[in-house]
Structures are given as structure tokens and as C-alpha cells.
Design brief:
Shape: globular
Distance between the termini: 39 Å
Number of helices: 1
Number of domains: 1
Largest sheet: 5 strands, antiparallel
CATH superfamily: YVTN repeat-like/Quinoprotein amine dehydrogenase
CATH class: Mainly Beta
Strand content: 35-45%
């Protein structure tokens, strides 16, 4: 009996010490407020000076969302500095309620999309550009590059996904509605002067067994091909990974389904979401929001390239009522030092509780082996934040991880307002 009590005591002590040490890795750097800005959208964009940029769906001068800057302390141990760069205006020619993460060009200008505004008849969203002030401390200037219309031709309602900035200032994006089959489009915005833009719908989703409802940002390769995922459609209507090849002088543009989820029921994953990342050999990595097991809690998958074909396999399946978290929304980011993957889940992480996790997947010693999953942090909701839905941002100098949680923090904002978090080099 004494031996059993001692064993139980050691197990309890070990658990407490492990929990204590684990908890020290995460810090809440900023808590959003109902009286300023709230509901951060997701991924933080980091510049070369260590400043982060993002958007919120609420708050600001007009209550319709903002673009913000979050700067590191001037001295070690000091406070981070939060600055609202721009408040969206719910009238006039611009859009409001920003829905996408940000991209930035070489001049420092930001680009993104809004969920509402734009065309006054449709209010179907817009693409905007935010130009930095000429003088430090001056006002940022927002300009509308394109307003999505309501018709039977063009896309509308931009996806909750960052734009891609290509050569010569061309922007690429996706919508979740509109197009020939009202299932979303791939569009581009071309410019010659950085001021006026011409929009072209490159491809309409939804025909027959094609993908439907694009559900993540586009990845652009060095040849100009575009890759992404759709939430629905494909051979089994459980989503796809697609490739769009632009037209050349000798060949027409073409869209190809690289993989249709549902080949094994839903055991291979279902409803892919978020971004795609590529390794040096051209293999593709991403997440699904559902499928993988009987509970359908989501997966991390890879498409292994062989010539022009791809073979799908799962790196990890999220488990219900466990510490893994469930239902990933954002995709993945690379740790180029050890080739591991980072990601977030939007719910759970503590058995029966939790409000999402940050996780890491370490690659096997030999390709084709088993990846090692580690849950780095479970969000407790409440003051600690909850519901992370953005791609993890890894600082290349420190190795620290940064991101946002849409909820949690302090009460207000229809419960909670969101946080910015940091995990020390895991």
C-alpha cells in the first residue's frame, strides 16, 4: 500500500511539474478590448524589424474593423506597443469588416479584402490597399482596388484568406461565391502603375466533380502556377486540392484536381481548410477541418509528388476528448531549422475542455516514417484566450511563435475580445 501511495504521489508530482514548466512557455502579450479594437482575424505578418501587423473585425473609430501594428518593446522586459494604423469606414467607396490576413509589398503598403462594402448595391466585399504615410506619424491612406459585383459572371464574397502578391504587383485571390456555377472563383488584379487595377476572373469552380467553395489562400510557385483547397466538391464532395496553370502562348489555362478527399470514406480527411506549404521535393502539406476518424475531428495530410501525380497520406489525425485539440482551421507553417510543422486547432485540447491548441509535428528520421505530434499549448478560454484560427508565425531570429486568438482575454465584445500570444522557442 505504501509503495502504491508513493507511486501515485510521484505521478502527481511529475504531472504538476510538467504542467508548470509547460505553462511557462506561453505568454499573453496583448488583450483586445471592446472600447478599442477586438476580434483579431488570424495570422500576424512580421516585418524585418520584428513588428507584427494584422486586422480586427471589430472596433476602431467606426466599429467596423482595423489594421494594426504590434511592436516589440524598446528594452528587454518592457511593454509591447499596439497601434491602430487604420479604421475602416462603413460608408463611401471603401469596404469594411476586413476578413483576410495581410500581404505587404516592397514599399510597405498592405493589401487585403473586406467582407462587406464595395459595390453599394451588392455590399459583397472589396479588395483594398493601405498606403503608408509620407511622413512618419502621418495618416495611412486606404484605397479600393476592386469592388465585387452581384452578377452571374464575376466572383463575390472574398474568402477568409490572404491575397498573393505576384510579379509586377499582380494580386491573386479567391471568392467563396459567384462565377459560372456560384461556387467561387480564382481572380487576379493586374496593374501598371500601382494605382489602377484590372480584374479578371481566371477560373470558376463548381462544374460537375470540380472543387467548390475555395477555402484558403492561394500558393504561387516559381512557374506561376496557383494551388489551393476547396471546402466542398471533388469526386466525393468532401473537398479538393487543386492546381491552376495559367495560359501560355501554346496552351490554354487549365485547372487540375490533385486530390479529392473522401476516397476512403472520410478516413483520408474531409473539408480541407487554410494554406498549403511545400517542401523542397514538391510534396504538399495541409490540414482538413473534418474526417480522419469516426468522430471527424480533422487531420494533417501530405500529398507526395511522383512525376505529375500525387499520393495522399495522413501525418496526424486529431482525436476527440484528448489533448490534441480538434478542427484545425488555419493551415501550417515551417520551422526551417528542423523541418517541423506548426499549426493550431480551433477547439478543445484539454479533455472535455479547452479552446484550441498550438501544436508541432516533428518529421521522421527517414521519409515515410511516423511524424511526432506535440501539443505546445492549450488555450483555456477566459483571460487566456481561445479559438485560434490563424497560421502560426515563427520569428526566424528567436524561434518564438506568435499568433492571435479570436476570443478570450477580457469580458465584453459579446463575451470576449481576443488576444495576441507568444510561445518561447519550443
Amino acid at each position: 500500500m505504501m509503495h502504491r501511495k508513493l507511486t501515485l504521489a510521484l505521478i502527481l508530482l511529475s504531472t504538476l511539474l510538467s504542467t508548470f514548466a509547460f505553462a511557462q512557455t506561453e505568454s499573453t502579450l496583448y488583450t483586445f478590448s471592446e472600447t478599442s479594437t477586438f476580434w483579431p482575424n488570424g495570422t500576424l505578418l512580421e516585418d524585418s524589424k520584428g513588428n507584427f501587423y494584422g486586422t480586427t473585425r471589430g472596433g476602431g473609430a467606426y466599429g467596423m474593423g482595423t489594421v494594426f501594428e504590434f511592436s516589440p518593446p524598446a528594452v528587454v522586459g518592457g511593454a509591447w506597443v499596439y497601434t491602430t494604423l487604420y479604421s475602416f469606414v462603413p460608408y463611401g467607396k471603401g469596404g469594411w469588416l476586413p476578413i483576410s490576413d495581410l500581404v505587404q509589398d516592397q514599399t510597405g503598403a498592405f493589401y487585403g479584402t473586406t467582407y462587406e462594402g464595395g459595390d453599394p448595391i451588392c455590399n459583397c466585399g472589396a479588395v483594398y490597399k493601405l498606403t503608408p504615410p509620407v511622413v512618419t506619424g502621418g495618416n495611412w491612406t486606404e484605397s479600393q482596388l476592386y469592388a465585387f459585383p452581384w452578377d452571374d459572371i464575376h466572383g463575390r464574397s472574398p474568402a477568409n484568406a490572404a491575397l498573393v502578391l505576384g510579379a509586377h504587383g499582380t494580386l491573386y485571390g479567391v471568392t467563396i461565391q459567384g462565377g459560372a456555377w456560384d461556387s467561387g472563383v480564382i481572380y487576379e488584379l493586374q496593374t501598371k502603375n500601382g494605382k489602377s487595377y484590372t480584374e479578371t476572373d481566371l477560373y470558376s469552380f463548381g462544374d460537375n466533380a470540380d472543387g467548390s467553395t475555395p477555402n484558403g489562400p492561394i500558393a504561387l510557385d516559381s512557374s506561376g502556377n496557383l494551388y489551393g483547397v476547396t471546402l466542398w466538391g471533388g469526386a466525393f464532395n468532401q473537398g479538393t486540392v487543386y492546381k491552376y496553370t495559367p495560359a501560355t502562348r501554346t496552351a490554354a489555362a487549365a485547372e487540375t484536381i490533385l486530390y479529392s478527399f473522401g476516397t476512403s470514406g472520410s478516413a483520408d480527411g474531409a473539408n480541407p481548410s487554410g494554406n498549403l506549404v511545400f517542401d523542397a521535393s514538391g510534396d504538399i502539406y495541409g490540414v482538413t477541418n473534418a474526417g480522419g476518424n469516426a468522430e471527424g475531428e480533422g487531420t494533417v495530410f501530405t500529398l507526395t509528388k511522383s512525376g505529375t501525380t500525387y499520393t495522399e497520406s495522413l501525418l496526424f489525425t486529431f482525436v476527440d476528448h484528448s489533448t490534441t485539440g480538434n478542427f484545425p482551421v488555419a493551415g501550417l507553417s515551417w520551422n526551417t531549422t528542423n523541418q517541423s510543422l506548426y499549426g493550431t486547432t480551433s477547439q478543445f485540447g484539454d479533455i472535455g475542455n479547452g479552446a484550441g491548441t498550438v501544436y508541432q509535428l516533428l518529421p521522421p528520421a527517414t521519409k515515410g516514417g511516423t511524424w511526432t505530434f506535440t501539443s505546445l499549448f492549450t488555450f483555456p478560454y477566459g483571460v487566456g484566450g481561445g479559438y485560434p484560427t490563424g497560421i502560426v508565425t515563427r520569428d526566424p531570429t528567436t524561434g518564438n511563435l506568435y499568433g492571435t486568438a479570436q476570443n478570450g482575454g477580457i469580458e465584453g465584445c459579446d463575451l470576449y475580445c481576443g488576444t495576441i500570444w507568444e510561445i518561447a522557442n519550443p
